[in-house]
Amino acid sequence: MSADAKRVFLNYDQQELDRAYDQSVWAPQMAQLEADDGLASAAVRKIMPPLTKQYGPAGSDVIDVFVPEGARAAPILVFIHGGAWTRNTREDASYPAPTFVGRGAAYLAPDFGSLKTVRLPQMVESCRAAVAWTIRNAGSFGGDPGRVFLAGHSSGAHLAACVLTTDWTAHGLPRDAVKGGFLVSGMYDLHPVLLSSRREYLHVTPEEVVEFSPIRHLDRISCPIGIASGDGDSPEFARQSDVFARALEGMGRLASRTVAVDANHFQVPGRLAQPDTDVSRAAFRLMGI
């Protein structure tokens, strides 16, 4: 920061903070990496077509279900895709399915709208509804309703973390309805995000900043959570992962802290598609598979 620049957050001036939340600065090949995920997902969907189910009333309230053949009481991972709350769909998040199905688990990926069509609170509610549907309907596709886990990447990790603060008893489900979370390169405090250039498309009220900042609701978290990020993540995504991990550790809820080596923001979730990486092994340990 130059001597005459004004600090906006911590030691960042405005330009530095904007850069710290702009993944394209730290991963210039961002568009190609996201396209590669889409291509890999299309190949998976061709080889092992998912069941696609409606979990809510909106047209976007659909969820893909990948299950092992002849599954009975299989553990379940629900994966919330990323894309700055504005890009990608469930069809771009199929690429980890073979890894989890190969370990005997069901892998589910929902759609939930985007900031282009709905506001952030509705996206969170849709993700909650997708998880609640999964728990209530697990038996219909060979899953175990008592072993449901939640994961997400980037903005999807933020949404997943919000879901992990849910009072499930208010939804007619057990308090420990979700048995664990695995959050990859996410944002857990919206305050600095809204100070960055992301405020141009993320429009939330001051009350919503508090409500949808999971680190401010640690008392609502009732399950172990694994935190992963990449050594090539942007500074703020790395810092947010570290801060949230330390907070979880302090309350006895941190299951693991993984920093993927030689991986930028868009390469870390790809490690879930490989069964022998630090990232996938941390997820397997969390799920007990």
From TrEMBL:
GO terms for molecular function: hydrolase activity. PROSITE patterns: CARBOXYLESTERASE_B_1 (PS00122). Coiled coil: none annotated. The lineage of its organism: Bacteria, Pseudomonadati, Pseudomonadota, Alphaproteobacteria, Hyphomicrobiales. SUPFAM superfamilies: alpha/beta-Hydrolases. Residues 63-163 form the BD-FAE-like domain. It comes from the Bacteria. InterPro entries: AB_hydrolase_fold, BD-FAE-like_dom, Carboxylesterase_B_AS, GDXG_lipolytic_enzyme. Keywords: Hydrolase. It comes from Ancylobacter oerskovii. This is Alpha/beta hydrolase. Pfam families: BD-FAE.
